[in-house]
Amino acid sequence: MTRQFVDDAGGGAGLRHLTLIALGYLALAVAGQAARTVTAWLASRLAWDGTDRLRERLTEHALGLDLAFHGRHTPGELIERVDGDVVAVADFVVAFVLDVVAGVLLLAGVLVVVCTVDWRIGCALLAYCVVVGYGMARAQRLAVPSAARSRAASATLVGMLEERLAGVEDIRANGAGEHTVRRFHQVSAALFRAENRDARIGTMLLAGTSVAFAAGTAVMLGLAAWAVEAGTLTVGTAVLLFQYTLMVRAPFERLIDQIRRYQSALAGLARIAALLAEKPALTPGTSPLPAAGPLGLRVEGVGFSYPDDGEQVLSGIDVTLAPGETLGLVGRTGSGKTTLARLVLRLHDPVEGRVRVGGVDLREADPRSLRGRIGMVTQDVQLFAASVRDNLTLFRPSPGDERLWQALEHAGLGEWAAGLPDGLDTELRGLSAGQAQLLAFARAFLSDPGLVVLDEASSRLDPATERRIEDGMSRLLRDRTGVIIAHRLSSLSRVDKIAVLDHGKIVEYGRRADLAADPDSRFGRLLDLAGVRR
Amino acid sequence: MTPVMRVATRLAAFDLRRYLVGALLWLPVHVLPLAGGLVLQRVFDQISGHEPAALRATLWWCAAFVGVELVRGVVIVVAWTYGVYWWCAAATLLRSNVLRSVLTARGPAAARLPHSPGEAVARLRDDVADTVDFTDESVSLMGTTLFALVALPIMASVDPVITLVLVLPMIAVGVLSRSLRRVIARLHGRARRLGAAVTAYVGEVFGGVLAIKTAGAEAAALERLRAHNRRRRAAAVRDRMATDLLDATTTTTVELSIGLVLLLAAPAMRGGDFTVGDLALFTSYIGWLTALPRSIGTILYRLPQAAVATERLSALMAPHEDAATLARGDGVWLHRDPPPAPPPPRHSGPLRVLEARGLTVHGLLHDVDVRLERGSFTVVTGAVGAGKTTLVRALLGLLPLDAGTIVWNGTPVADPGTFLVPGRAAYAGQVPRLFSATLRENLLLGRPESDDDVRRALELAAFERDLAELPDGLGTVVGPRGVRLSGGQAQRVTAARALVRDPDLLLVDDLSSALDVETERLLWERIAGDGPPTVLVVSHRQAALERADQVIVLDGGRVAGRGRLPDLLAHCPEMRRLWHAELVTEATEDRAGAE
Predict the structure, then answer these.
(1) Residue B344 placed within a domain
(2) Which chain B residues are Cβ-neighbours of A44 within 8 angstroms?
């Protein structure tokens, strides 16, 4: 149209005709923008749909990874990997649909038109676009590793912030605030260095493309000037060619405008792929545990060391519990009790020997039935910033409010719960560590495990409270097999067997009554030390 | 000035030299196209034969066009690389000011921190970016304004009427952007809130991964994430649409302008006043000129977004701090190591007596008095939920008080949160918080003490045997990303963190809950023997209670009894109730022994 306009204007065509052309241009422009807006809307919906699914997939995958993985990555870092990396991709996808796809279409259209105008100039333009495109693609590949480094630095920063913000009170009361700010500056400096390198490569690309386009425009103009002089081109066509090169340039410029996003999107994708490539160390089995009744436990010659340091944490552990029996695990802190408990829950696999629950080697057990049939209460209870109901059910469908209230009642939280302003919908806040332990018991009461592991589960409870929930506890342990870790030996008064752990080995193992009666047993001496009568 | 503008001006001014140099470097990027347009005008006039010239000369002009772009490209690289520093520095400044306020400002931090750390992290990441981007946009605005100021007269000299017609739609865009401001702020605020909810939830899930995994609740946790995601998606798409629509309006206006130029140029071209070269100049300038309304539009929609962000960041800071504190420019250290934190001031006057009178925390603590004399060992005990931890946190100024005063050696303390800190007091919380760093760093956290001092503190905390077993001794990386310490080990490390500060008053909350009897006995012996002169302990364990000069029994947030253990057992019903359980247990032990 522009060509027609220029040539007609030069040729002295009627004003009416020219106005029509101009109006047509206007209509096209408005329609183009409307189409672009609709595309943007669709693109952002699509992008969010896709990336939300990606977020869910990443979360699912990360949740399926074992504790060794979670030991290496802080929650803050995972926030950045599940959310931050994906946001980078989402931002880019929208821009991609709008700019790259539209740009490529436009480019193709321009090439076709130019070819019909003059096939030699068209071929030159085509060759030129191929060269620039190839160069950009090569350069991007260079840029991705540096962008990945800056994303990793950003994840470190977020991880650091999350950890420190979770420990605000410890930092404040120990006067370490200024020091923490100083550490933050150091981590920020590392991020800056990474981003700076990243930006240098990114802008080189931007400037390079910009210059390449200018060169292309100039070559086009030169060719056009030559053709006009030779009489094979009209001036209008020359203007048209110029406008088309500008048109080709616009989407590329937009794309390069997004270069930071683009690079971090590619880096984000690489990191997403890396996270998805992490394989859980535990392969799920298929044999279900017996669906009802107490489950026997056999720990056979179990040894364990963490893969990263190889230090032997447990060795030669043998324990046998008949269905319904309870075992008390005793030992100094750091002697391996919690590790043993985690093996029984198959949070790790033993390096040697095997753990059988209900006759099934845990390596072969179906994870769903394993989690359903083995319950655990720990010392440090993990609470969620969510409603009381969600904290009880862990986001699962509620078994009915009545059962939840009952569980709270049995856990000695009845009075506390009665004071909640919105009942079970109240957001859980300001729970003391002791109350948190009671809540963990309430969680356990809601399930129906055949084997219960209590790891210092009542250590933060005062004796009176512990006694108050005794009914609930004995209900929890009735007709169930139990492994109980406790430092307060009075909490172990009802267990059938005792195992004393020292440096990852069982140094004493037997029926509680026998050990308590034996004047030379370690357990007996521990009872004396604690002032608990044998 | 609104808070967001104060923050923005301070961000520009904190390193004014870099901001201005950066802006000056950017200006040519916006101004150089002026030259490019003039060159094009010349090229087209020559091609169209309006201006007679040899083909050779035309080709030279084409080369000049490439030259102009080349200069522009170099400038872009320099300006951008230079600008990265400013962007990072401004973001670091905002983040460090918020962090410093949370960690050191007067008044309790608990009242202003959101419930989950993930939510605070989301603000430090996204809201900081919003604020800095807004300020950053001012540079583009300057550049495009300058371009417009030069381009418009050039164009006016060619054809004033067409130029005027071009300006009008741009004014319309500005007016439209401004009137949509409130809608954009609302949509953006909502998108940010829901976005932070997703971030916080992901943080929660991974923070509680053990609970979720052991319960097999992975599927349910994911389902909840899906719900959060759906809500955010709707809000984010709407937020984006609002800015996109504005953007589209601006672009349409630009296209309209080009159309108008064609329309108006038609009669002029026929008359020959308006040459093909002029048309090339106009169309090339219009493209760049549109950057101005675009820039103005961006500023106008980023302004309400930045206002939302400033508000969300300010909410993390203390009530006495304002926007000026948020953007206070006291040092960014991206090139060099920051100077070491200033050593804590020497506190004059060792503790003789610390008194708390009438401490009241809404619903948790009612009118509690505490008196800690130098050399005393005090144990706070009580049933679960009696307010033991609340009392310690209230004493330390970590919680907002409804009533009550804290008096140090007879002088009331204005802000216990910044007064009862090392030198005077140190604290080990109930749930041990270790950071992903070496054991040494976790203990010192910036203190200058030597390794020997660290070892002594660890020995006081009965950790020496555990230390001997750590692979790299004090250099072992512990915490979430380091060596897994057992619950009891982590508790003793946090106790050592308080002990290495050599405080006059040591406050420890439920330190021994994960300790075996033997280690616990050793720990209390050492702390009472060589530890800080004055100790306050929350515990319900016998070993601590028997050692106490004073036991404070709490019940429902009130003091139910006070005194030495035997007296309390004789006279305090609540203490007897708590103790009764132990007696009953022992009776059971008797029966078990008899069987």
Answers:
(1) no
(2) 236-237, 240-241, 244
Neighbours of B421 (CB within 10 A): 24
Q: How many angstroms separate the first and last alpha carbons of chain A?
A: 102
Interface of B with A in 210-269 (CB under 8 A): 210-218, 220-226, 229-230, 232-233, 236-237, 240-241, 244-245, 248-249, 251-252, 255-256, 258-260, 262-263, 265-267, 269
> Does B359 lie in the same domain as B318?
no
Q: Name every residue whose Cβ is closer than 8 Å to that of residue B365 and which is 6 or more positions away in sequence.
A: B359, B387, B390, B391, B394, B557
pLDDT tens-place string over residues B555-564: 989 999 999 9
Q: Does A221 contact B65 at a Cβ distance shorter than 8 Å?
A: yes
pLDDT tens digits, A211-235: 777 777 777 777 777 877 777 777 7
pTM over 0.90: no
- Tell me the two tokens of residue B162: 């067409």
Alpha-carbon span A240 to A110, nearest angstrom: 10
Long-range contacts: A25-29, Cβ < 8 Å, 24+?
A: A25/A1, A25/B255, A25/B258, A25/B259, A25/B262, A26/B255, A26/B256, A26/B259, A28/A1, A29/B252, A29/B255, A29/B256, A29/B258, A29/B259
For chain A, domains (ranges, CATH) are 2-277 (1.20.1560.10), 297-530 (3.40.50.300)
> Are the beta carbons of A311 and B471 separated by less than 8 Å?
yes
Q: Do the Cβ atoms of B338 and A246 come within 8 Å?
A: no
Torsion sign across C-alpha atoms A397, A402, A408, A413? positive
Q: How many CA atoms lie within 13 A of B388 on its CB side?
A: 31
Q: Is the ipTM of this complex over 0.85?
A: yes
Residues B485 and B556 in one domain: yes
The rounded distance, in Å, linking the Cα atoms of A408 and B385 is 14
Instruction: Answer for the pair B459, B495: CB distance below 8 angstroms, yes or no.
Output: no
